Amino acid sequence: MVYRESFKVQSRDKAVSFHDVTEQTKEAVKKSGVKNGIVVVYSHHTTCSVITQECAFDMSMTGLETLQQDLVNVFEDIIPTYRSEGMYLHPQAQALVFAEEHGEDARGCHNTDAHLRSSIIGRNVTIVIADGEADLGEFGRVHFIDWDQTRARQRTVQIMIIGE
Amino acid sequence: MVYRESFKVQSRDKAVSFHDVTEQTKEAVKKSGVKNGIVVVYSHHTTCSVITQECAFDMSMTGLETLQQDLVNVFEDIIPTYRSEGMYLHPQAQALVFAEEHGEDARGCHNTDAHLRSSIIGRNVTIVIADGEADLGEFGRVHFIDWDQTRARQRTVQIMIIGE
Amino acid sequence: MVYRESFKVQSRDKAVSFHDVTEQTKEAVKKSGVKNGIVVVYSHHTTCSVITQECAFDMSMTGLETLQQDLVNVFEDIIPTYRSEGMYLHPQAQALVFAEEHGEDARGCHNTDAHLRSSIIGRNVTIVIADGEADLGEFGRVHFIDWDQTRARQRTVQIMIIGE
After folding, report:
1. How far apart are CA B12 and CA A158, in angstroms?
2. What is the pTM of this model?
3. Which of A35, A88, C122, C123 fits C43 for a cystine, CB–CB 3.0-4.6 Å?
4. How high is the pLDDT of residue A106?
């Protein structure tokens, strides 16, 4: 059996966005009727990721849960936010022309940090379905991350379920 | 065809634990009867990961294979073990209350490094099954990692096989 | 339905290699006839990875796209290329003997950085297939990475498609 659905989340400008998509994931598993298999939660975008993590309850000053902010802070050390030209090789002349031709402004094109963070975390999680439930563990949540801080926009989340 | 099984491994206190689960993975593929498909080896826990890597033969002073210890050392640089309060934002007041309500002591709650390392590596591997064998490569092994150094406990490994 | 194919790419010596395998991935999805499901692009090797990323158009001096070079540069900071003995614990005596027994020379065995980078990025991507197409996003490409800089050789890419 294969079951697919997709939906959109609204990211924010000037900050990394985390979206809790646990309820949508659980509901999709229920709707699919799959008892044993996998659920893949997948980002359509090359500057986004999906992870599973616990809820941390307490919030940081940027409006993230503390554990989410800790993850952002780790990446701020190893892949800092693109703040001044030349921090990264990308984008250069041809990338900027291509972006302009596709309606992206110069600021939006300087999201190299988001591409790199997404490459390291990956664009999907694969969760085992056991006895009709996504096996998230006692406190596990599914978080869709938009690493791109250069603009607010709608982002597409794909859920794909395969099993019996 | 879908085949699932799960089993437990016993992690250790005060150190990162690696468990070689290659034989269990290979045996599950054999039992499943799947000739072409995937095997997902999955951690039920948000402070654990699964990777595939070679055996390094030589051992480090903490009892890990040298290549495993090198991986731990890389993480010790970018996401150091939680040693003094305030190193990470998480956990704060509400997380500590929640943990206490669920029988977790204060030390066990300060495993932020384990949550973050697990987020970066991910909680599962997906291995292609070709001609009835998990395609691990000539020397590939499957390692279940418990990043949580705050206590020894039983951890659940899930194996899910899908194919024909 | 399950569809599998594999093919080889030729990596280069003394540099990280990126191979764009997007066309092979798209063609395999078409050949499979799967309308909804997943395509797993998988590395047979423990020193390789697969990611999805955009094309950056502009090239670095080592012959990589700028965004690929930026990713290599991030890893050069956190997991530097093995340049002088003792930088990493691995390989030690038993690993060197094992390698020699399997026809690997001493230089080829000092690819610890490649093993570690592959562990962090992972060996596969899982891409959702929606309406008969791999949902890569508007500009998404599939890149097979050979992190091993110690020799040029043929590398095996596996494509596994599961769905309906």
Report:
1. 37
2. 0.98
3. C123
4. 87
